[in-house]
Amino acid sequence: MFFKFLATCNPGLEEIAIKEVEELIKVKANFFHPGAIIFDSEEKAIFKLNYLSQSLHRIILLFHFSEFNDLNDIYSKVVNLDLTDFIHFNQSFAIRAERFGKHNFTSIDVARVVGQAIIDNYLKTKNYKLKVNLDNPDIEIRCEVRNSLFWIGIDTTGESLHKRWYRIIGHKAPLKSTIAYSMVRLSKWNINESLCDPMCGVGTIPIEAAIWANNIPIGKYRKFNFEKFNFINKEDYKNFIEKYQCKNENLQITGIDISIRSINGAKKNAEKAGVQINFINGDSTKIPLDYDHIVTDLPYGIRTKRKNLKELYENFFNNVYKYNWKSLVVITARPELIPSIEPTKVLNVEYGDINAKIFIFLN
């Protein structure tokens, strides 16, 4: 059976999400709206993308999307959707709604209207009233109002995929794992080349690179929403994970940080992830940076209140430009501190409440 899917990702990094989907399940994906891509695929995409994707946050079975006028219009659209094949009569459900743009209603209003429409449809078609469980539902339905666009679907994922099992040691200003992975892919690094994060913190960028290179499944230690679904073949998923094979590549990945505490945390995170990385306690403005690819999260001075950022940026770029690397990829929320060097590409990325930019320099 073929389904239409919507997958969420970091706004601004849809191109990496599209590329990864096409690599993993061999179908064409397209931009849908900021932070979301859309594609058609077989049921096995539910297993593969949830288990393996490093760029996606949620994989949603998309039932409907269209322009709308008001809440009554949303109700009319949803009440005419037949979801009886997807929600069993003895299963509970919950609505998770989000709203973007200016409207005369809230996301809570959207959730209320959509939930009532689903209950009314089930009453009409099955003569049975579905149970609502907001805390631990069997079926989690997600819907979104974005300006004049409305979409609705079933969340196959559950907890966002960006939350990794290996992050046992945190950081005051952590880089989201899906952004870290995307930056590695933007660098065009391949496993036969060297890669360095000279301000690695607790190791997210090097670890994400090693996980990708070794085909380590992100979903290995997870429970997913789709495991509660009655309409998919659970044996197919069981067979998929039993047959899945990781690699054991000999990688040239280095993480450097001036904080020995961060380096010790990075080592623990890498050990938990099951990857081998060379971590060094050192100053990125002085230590040799003779690597093929350099990927790093520059400090913003927002969460850590770090001082002398202008001097730090100048000294770092002076150091990094001494070496003949193939790519340099950096993310920052302080783009004004980047020296006046023409980048190959700049991407605007939404990172929670921070608007950041990724600068890509290619030699």
Identify the notable features of this structure and list them briefly:
VC0802-like; 8-stranded mixed β-sheet; 7-stranded mixed β-sheet; 29% helix; 27% strand; 363 residues
Describe the secondary-structure layout:
Elements: E1 2-9, H1 14-25, E2 29-33, E3 36-42, H2 44-52, E4 56-67, H3 71-79, E5 92-100, H4 107-126, E6 131-132, E7 139-146, E8 149-155, H5 177-186, E9 194-197, H6 204-213, H7 234-243, E10 252-257, H8 260-273, E11 278-281, E12 293-297, H9 309-320, E13 327-332, E14 345-351, E15 354-362
Parallel strand pairs: 5-6, 5-7, 9-10, 9-12, 10-11, 12-13
Antiparallel strand pairs: 1-3, 1-4, 2-3, 4-8, 7-8, 13-15, 14-15
Q: Helical region count?
A: 9
Structural class: alpha/beta
The domain count comes to 2
Give the uncertain stretches in residue-range form: none
Distance between the termini: 46 Å
Rg over alpha carbons = 22 Å
Adjacency order of strands in the biggest sheet: 2-3-1-4-8-7-5-6
CATH class value of the largest domain: Alpha Beta
Average pLDDT metric: 94
CATH T-level topology of the largest domain: Rossmann fold
CATH superfamily of the largest domain: Vaccinia Virus protein VP39
What fraction, in percent, of the residue positions are helical?
25-40%
Strand content: 25-35%
Structure write-up:
This protein has 363 residues and is of the alpha/beta class. The protein folds into 2 domains: 2-155, 2-Layer Sandwich (VC0802-like), CATH 3.30.2130; 177-216 and 248-362, Vaccinia Virus protein VP39 (Rossmann fold, 3-Layer(aba) Sandwich), CATH 3.40.50. Helices cover 29% and strands 27% of the residues. The chain contains 9 helices and 15 strands. The strands form 2 sheets. Strands 2-3-1-4-8-7-5-6 form an 8-stranded mixed sheet. Strand 5, helix 4 and strand 6 form a beta-alpha-beta unit. Helix 3 runs parallel beside helix 4 (107-126). The radius of gyration is 22 Å and the shape is globular.
